[in-house]
Specification:
D-amino_acid_metab_enzyme, 381 residues, D-serine ammonia-lyase activity, alpha/beta, TIM Barrel, eight-stranded mixed beta sheet, eight-stranded parallel β-barrel, PLP-binding_barrel, Ala_racemase_N, 2 domains, single chain
């Protein structure tokens, strides 16, 4: 680990990057892409999740490697950027949008939005989007959100989906493309209740029951899965799975379904100060807490901080609750024997990729031990 982060540090210095940045290891990313290609069931296509990979060059790199033009989208400004960057892209909303958001996007009359499939989770939203289609004199593509165990919304049972499908003929401007299921709960089901494998099998069976209610021309999009489960699906009713975070493997995605994947994204930031830390107040309090192991005898202050990330280098670098977090200069505890100097780099591994990838401006792209490019990120708002 020390040699790896020494290489990253040298690359950052050579590139004159001396402020917090998001670093992407392209070689590790390509290794993760290769694992997806090797393990993905051949009956399934990948739909890339733009919120988790919110960088057009990153989406392009993965999309070309996998030969996919399918994307799942969540936020209209990102949706529009993706539509303009990728003329062949087919976009599915991964959450239902307020009808006002759809109206704002569609009322400009831009033809690129015809490549978007809107998500419908209730009869009420179906009626709203039907009214919007009539108002605009446009045909809107829709897919139905179905609940296969996560219980976060969507149609809760096949009969409810049938009622929505029966109402479709009254909404002449809506065209059903299929369904979207999400089973993010499956990896977290304890053995007492059957464990992840049973939960995943049940989710697939439930999805099949919903799909059975669709007409033959309403099955273009049969979407299931996320990064934690996509590679575990084999032989089900779905024709595509969604994946995003798996490609860069943030901490929250250290799951059995992604064994062998490597973290490819890190927050890198200079160490500003190396200190023998003391708490405000009488020195005896700090010495007592140090003797009790509650406060470190050595520490450092980082350039920035308070990120959704876990420290990974220097080794055994830790946060300390007594001094708390700071987005300006965050204190980190160090082991007493740590050899660290101001100007060295600290590295943290994001807990998630969405939002975090966009926090630092252009991504520093590492390949062959050098920073070879800076990739702009998509807007957060």
């Amino acid at each position: 680990m020390k040699a790896y982060f020494a290489t990253l540090s040298d690359a950052l210095r050579e590139a004159d990057i001396f402020q917090p940045c998001l670093l992407l290891d392209l070689d590790r990313l390509d290794g993760n892409i290769a694992l997806v290609k090797k393990r993905l069931d051949p009956s399934l296509a990948v739909r890339l999740v733009d919120k988790s990979l919110a960088c057009l060059p990153l989406l392009s790199h993965i999309g070309k490697a996998l030969g996919t033009h399918r994307l799942m989208t969540f936020h209209p400004p990102i949706t529009e950027a993706v539509l303009r960057a990728f003329p062949d892209a087919d976009l599915l909303y991964g959450k239902p949008m307020p009808v006002g958001a759809a109206r704002a996007a569609l009322s400009r009359g831009d033809a690129v939005w015809s490549r978007v499939c809107w998500l419908i989770d209730t009869q009420e939203r179906l009626a709203e989007y039907g009214g919007l289609a009539d108002e605009l004199g446009a045909e809107l593509r829709i897919a139905f959100e179905i609940d296969v165990g996560l219980h976060r919304g969507g149609f809760a049972e096949p009969a409810a989906l049938s009622r929505a499908l029966n109402a479709l003929p009254t909404h002449k401007g809506l065209r059903c493309e299929g369904v979207m299921a999400y089973e993010a709960h499956a990896p977290h089901i304890p053995g007492l209740f059957g464990g992840p494998a049973k939960a995943l099998a049940q989710a697939s069976e439930q999805a099949a029951a919903f799909v059975a209610r669709l007409g033959a021309d309403q099955r273009h999009i049969l979407n299931i899965g996320g990064s934690k489960t996509a590679l575990l699906h084999h032989g089900g009713i779905a024709n595509e799975v969604s994946m995003g975070s798996a490609f860069v493997l943030p901490v929250d995605f250290d799951t059995p379904g992604l064994d062998g994947f490597q973290p490819a994204a890190f927050i890198a930031t200079p160490i500003l100060k190396v200190v023998e830390p003391m708490l405000p107040g009488p020195p005896a309090v700090s010495r007592l807490l140090q003797a009790l192991g509650r406060f470190p005898r050595k520490g450092c202050y980082l350039y920035g901080g308070k990120w959704m990330a876990e420290p990974v280098f220097p080794e055994r670098m830790t946060r300390n609750g007594l001094l708390g977090l700071s987005s300006n200069q965050q204190f980190m505890g160090l082991p007493a024997q740590a050899v660290v100097r101001p100007g060295d780099y600290a590295f943290l591994r994001p807990t998630q990729s969405e939002a975090v990838l966009q926090h630092f401006g252009p991504i520093a792209v590492l390949s062959g031990g050098r920073i070879v490019d800076r990739w702009p990120v998509l807007p957060m708002m």
